Amino acid sequence: QQQVKQSPQSLIVQKGGISIINCAYENTAFDYFPWYQQFPGKGPALLIAIRPDVSEKKEGRFTISFNKSAKQFSLHIMDSQPGDSATYFCAASILLFSGGYNKLIFGAGTRLAVHP
Amino acid sequence: GEEVAQTPKHLVRGEGQKAKLYCAPIKGHSYVFWYQQVLKNEFKFLISFQNENVFDETGMPKERFSAKCLPNSPCSLEIQATKLEDSAVYFCASSQFGSGGYEQYFGPGTRLTVT
Prior knowledge:
The complex is a heterodimer. Chain A is mostly beta strands. Chain A contains no helices and eleven strands. Chain A is 0% helix and 51% strand. In chain A, a hairpin with a 6-residue loop joins strand 4 (33-38) and strand 5 (45-50). Chain B has strands spanning 5-7, 10-13, 19-24, 31-37, 43-50, 53-56, 65-68, 75-79, 88-95, 105-106, 110-114. In chain B, strand 7 and strand 8 (75-79) form a beta hairpin. Chain B is built from no helices and eleven strands. By secondary structure, chain B is mainly beta. Chain B starts with a strand and ends with a strand. The A-B interface holds A 32, 34, 36, 42-46, 49, 87, 89, 95, 98-106, 108-109 and B 4, 30-31, 33, 35, 40-43, 45, 48, 50, 56, 59, 91, 93, 95-99, 101-109.
């Protein structure tokens, strides 16, 4: 019930194309869904996050779409660039009564390669 | 500081030796989390702290792993009697307490190699 399933495992996109990564979860108690970007040898960096009270959130070229009834959310990268080539992780967490969020449950990651 | 700091960057230990990793959270952040990333990129939660108090230790292999967050000191994660399977990158993350500042910010990680 704690699992977050992510697909695809790897993705190749041409420069300027749209990259789409999908995640699904089972635990309906999750109420915070961040996406992280990780380059080789670096720590994960927060890209964008969403809470279930909205269906879409956009920041620059990055958009999260959220479908609460289907328990699915996805990351769209518009106008993908070679510099976007990295591993992307979706995650989920639960709001603590004391404020802040509990541990992150990560998906397995998607290795994105954007070809020039 | 404005970034989570982790030391050392790399650590090599023979099987059975002790390993100790350190994490300095972002100043003002009250929550510290430790995660283990193994070769297939999978992240595993180990333990979290709220200030110096253990908040959630459900991911810790308690027989060999221990962790502390003491006032005015970096947090630490210690592995007694390391095993080959402990080889991984260990990440520390920190977040604020209270509404409006709940993002987790990760450090650069410590790569532990057990030979």
